[in-house]
Amino acid sequence: MSNYRNIGKLVASFGLKGELILQHSLGKRKSLKELELIFIEEKKGEMLPYFLESVTLKSEEELLIKLEGIHTKEAAKKIIQHEVWLSEEDFLKHAAKSTPIFWVGFQLVDDGKKIGEIKEVIEQPHQVLCRVDWNGKEALIPIHEQTLEKIDNKKKEIHVKLPDGLLEVYR
């Protein structure tokens, strides 16, 4: 799983010929031009490759995709709600550096002290939660306009000012 990056989920079928709607977190208006292959997690930790026949921009966060081998609405429905992944190489080509999912692998730094490496990013309407391992425990750290100080892409660091006592909850 370390060679793959989660980009979103198949949320619905579209039409009668097996097209699918991919809701993604790659950044605004990504069309995935030149992308040939995606991976769908059919079972936990089991990635199956699917070749893209076509990709059409539907909205800022949604793409209409057609996959090889999926030719009916019924076949498309079988993979709805499955997570979609890209290889690390394709992810780096297609993800906007400004999007939160690009932060996976960055160090989270609070007031000059490293908290830990960001393992997962969970986007919510008013904030982003970053999952880190802190002192041997999983911690969910909220990132929003009051806590975010700076993003250093060169050093791969996210600098935050967390509320007093937030990390104490995870002791």
Please provide a written account of the structure:
The chain is mainly beta and 171 residues long. It folds into 2 domains: 4-93, RimM (Elongation Factor Tu (Ef-tu), domain 3, Beta Barrel), CATH 2.40.30; 101-170, SH3 type barrels. The protein has helices at residues 73-77, 88-94, and strands spanning 4-14, 19-24, 37-43, 46-59, 62-67, 83-87, 107-110, 113-123, 128-134, 137-143, 148-152, 157-160. The strands form 2 sheets. The protein has a 6-stranded antiparallel β-barrel. Strands 10-9-8-7-12-11 form a 6-stranded mixed beta sheet, with no helix packed on it.
What's a concise summary of this model?
By secondary structure, the chain is mainly beta. It contains two helices and twelve strands, in the order E-E-E-E-E-H-E-H-E-E-E-E-E-E.
CATH topology of the largest domain: Elongation Factor Tu (Ef-tu), domain 3
Biggest sheet overview:
6 strands, antiparallel, barrel
The structure class reads mainly beta
CATH class of the largest domain: Mainly Beta
Low-confidence stretches: none
In N-to-C order, the SSE pattern is EEEEEHEHEEEEEE
- Rg value: 18 Å
What is the rounded distance between the termini? 28 Å
Number of helical runs? 2
Gross morphology is elongated
| Mean of residue pLDDT values | 88
CATH superfamily of the largest domain: RimM
Proportion of beta-strand residues: over 45%
Number of strands: 12
Tally of distinct domains: 2
